[in-house]
Amino acid sequence: MATNSTPMVEQHIAVFGGSGSGKTVLLSSFYGAAQEPSVRRANRYAVTAEDRAQGRTLHRNYLGMRDGDTVPGPTRFASTSYRFVIEPSADALPKGRSRQKAVKPLRIVWHDYPGEWFEEDPSSADEATRRVETFRSLLSADVAVLLVDGQLLAEHAGEEDRYLKALLTDFHTGLYALRDDVLEDGKRLTRFPRIWTLALSKADLLPDVDVEAFRELVIGKAGGELDELRTVLQSFVQDPDALDVGEDFLLLSSAKFEPGAIDVTTRTGVDLLLPITAMLPFERFAKWATTRQRGAQVAEQLLKFAGPVVGFLATSRYGKSPLVGAAAGWIGGGIGSRAVSFATKRVAKFKDEATAEQEFTSRVLARFAEDLDRGVEQRVLRRGDES
Fold it and tell me: Which of 159, 258, 281, 302 makes a 20 to 30 Å CA pair with 195?
């Protein structure tokens, strides 16, 4: 449990994808790989599931792929949230501190939205209600990931537009159908996922497609449908200019799948999911809040949920000062598109006065920033601010 000096900071990610697009395999690969001793030693942090039963299931799925070459079964209509704590690994703990006593400053919440709900009409009034309630639970997310199924894209070689147009239209019409029930009295939301990333799942099936080629394929084959999706999402949110839909692109491969064999050590983009969830909101929200004129309520929301960096710095630098006021005072004045680099330098500046837990936080966030830069260099990630 966190102490009063270093609060638990929580970031949310919502993952959307059609049935069979690989959401369960992706989540299992993400969590299972994080349990490998070599990965924990290299990262110097551990990823732990708060719900032990969920953690065991995900780890078992991963071990089935690693040792038995078996893929997890489908989870039709299952809507689940998974909470993961990022804490120092055993060898990174300060001397004399147990894991139970160590502060756990970072939590990632992963929301999985059933793909079938974008592809099929509700079978009952109860299911329709559950769809609305489930979508409302996703509104705490800052980042949403829309999965494009690489297998289906490969199967539609030469006519990719048929699949991409259908997929984005399903998302568009599904979200539009939820709109009136989600918005109370038609009032637009200040709290809403404002970064919608398109990710190519099963990217190993398309080895010649890098992130730039993926982006060009989506825009070239289904640019109109992407614009329609953006328009629908803008209709949910106050200040629709502070919203990026299809500006960020990512390649994802949970493992290398071959007939009778699964190589879980060969992954693409999975290690970027934590950095994207933790760092992109800070980077993008801070820029939006400080470089444009917007309503006070929206600006407050942007700053309040700008990510672990703002929360960490506001706490360590300003003590008990109000988070929004402290953060606004600190980042005001041209933070620019390279907010992450700027922030990590500030973290280093305050390192000497930080506690061991705060040092851990700054180290992890700096690592996340480096991971994002590396993803861009390897053409696995394309960030909207790189345009």
Answer: 159
